[in-house]
Fold this sequence. Notes:
The protein contains 25 helices and 13 strands. It is an alpha/beta fold.
Amino acid sequence: MMNQVDLNTNRIASATLEKSKNWAEFTVDRILEKFPDLDLYTCAAGISPSGVVHFGNFRDIMTSLSIVNELKKRGKKARLLFSWDNFDRFRKVPKNFDLEKYVPFIGLPLTAVPDPTGETESYARKAEIEFETTMQILGVELEYRYQTQCYTSGMYKEQIIKALQNKSRIAEIIYGFMSEKARTEKFESYAAFEADFWPIAVYSKFNNKDNTRILSFDGVSKVTYFCTDTNQEAELDFNTDTNAKLSWKIDWPMRWQFEGVVFEPGGKDHATPGGSYDVSAVIAKEIFGYESPIFVGYDFVGITGLEGKMSSSAGNAMSPAELLQVYTVDLLKFTYEKTPPQRTFNLSFGPEIYRQYDDLDKIQPELNSIPFKHAVAYGQIVNWNPNKLVELLRGIDLEYNNKSILERLPCAKNWLEKYNPDEMFKLLDTRNESYYSDLSELEKSQIANLVEYIKTDSCESIEAINLKVYGIPKDTSLTEQENKKLQRNFFSHIYFLLFNKNTGPRLATYIWAVEKSELIKLLDFA
């Protein structure tokens, strides 16, 4: 019936990338070898705006961006083309939507589905605006393509007709890549598959939904279709009508040819042998006369530290905009760029984020950025006031880049208050009478000593406060080791009276930073 498709793809295997010292340099070598001397090198990425464009989708862009940057390093003119596949159908109602209201929109193009908030012209546009705004904040330059606009303008008319004229060959290619199990379970025979196969979907002129069945093609420019919703038959003429869209595995290679794409990454589902890329690579060459772009598959991006403390997003649909609540622009880009695409990595809303900030600071020590741990620990002491934080740090002989303080302090605040509230040191509302009553008379007198000091001293010097708080429990008749134990116990009592915890921020720094009246209210039992 048919010969096995002769596959000659440009999919770079993960194992090959793993052996290369620099995956981007290796990949660009392949691009320039295959596409030498182009005036413009086009790298591509894209997504269907059928919901939140999340942190996993963002790897698509950052992988392509690495190649664009490497091409520019070599003196090449390069661009990153991002396609909004907003002419795709609305497939299902998201969990947080009004089910009854939105079920009637299933089958429409995404751009024809209303935005539930009423803020934008469509469901698709809402997702697009949020993402595009975040890309501006990140400084990522993208050249956008909106596929509803492309299709309805008639831009792809010739390519659609070509696909229809080569319907049988496309069917043969797609069928050739199917597993034996898929063939036998879904189709009686290849003839049955080919007879029902069409490379396009039609949005009905009666209700704008794709619940249609194509009946025939005249070989030139017209198809006849049947709308199953309205039980009506209609004709579509590509010279005047634009309510049709190529199916995914034909649409993808068509756009490679139309835009001159030389590189595009994809998730593991597209990268597997016999997957979407391999199918599309053959269709690109045989139907559209274009050598497929170099392709790199990227692995999973995980997220940790959100158990039981998710943001407004549901499940794993956290967007780059939400990531910027705890990641600075530099850290978010660095985290994606430093990991080769064939390796998985995790974003963190838990303590692992400390290490990620530290890793960034190690490669740019000249910037003298404030460690994220310090931003979290000292930020809450000064109630997130950057000027007060600078003053506090100088008081303990620390000085950091002011720009890093302004950037990281809001991230530290969000990380602590929104995602790690258990790590906060929040003053009690009332005195911890029960804890105080169990203390010895000596311990109570030590606390009274501290209260008297806070009442009478200006507490303007962190160094002086430090000498005082360490000196109160000290017994000159004891060894240094024995005094350390007494000091630890004293601090623990203070923390329990202030926070109902046995640990807390550096005590001298905390006394210096907070309102003295707040401390006296909780510590004065006289």
